[in-house]
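REQUEST FORM: STRUCTURE PREDICTION
Request ID: SP-0412
Submitted by: Lab K.M.
Chain count: 1
Length (residues): 116
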Amino acid sequence: QVQLQESGAGLVKPSQTLALTCTVSGDSITTNHYYWSWVRQPPGKGLEWMGFIDYDGTPYYSPSLKSRTSISRDNAKNTVYLQMNSLKPDDTAVYYCNANYIREYWGQGTQVTVSS
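STATUS: Completed
RESULT:
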């Protein structure tokens, strides 16, 4: 059973950089066929897929966020990271870590509020 735990952020000022961590337990992030995604949900809106990093470490991004987003991982720590720069108030959302292989797994989410 894969478990995901997001951490980081909270209140961030506009133009600053967001850094979130997804700590994975229950399986290795290098296991074949897993995709490790970041997904966010702005208040009152639906889920927005931001991007993922696959089992061999290759990242893929939503075209609309690609210029500001970076997803990486640390195999030794079994951890996936999200970095997003030039934050705007519209980036305010709950950010989720997601794993997908046969079934989906979700973290509990972490609130990010972008405000001066």
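NOTES: The chain has a mean pLDDT of 95.
Reviewed by: T.R.
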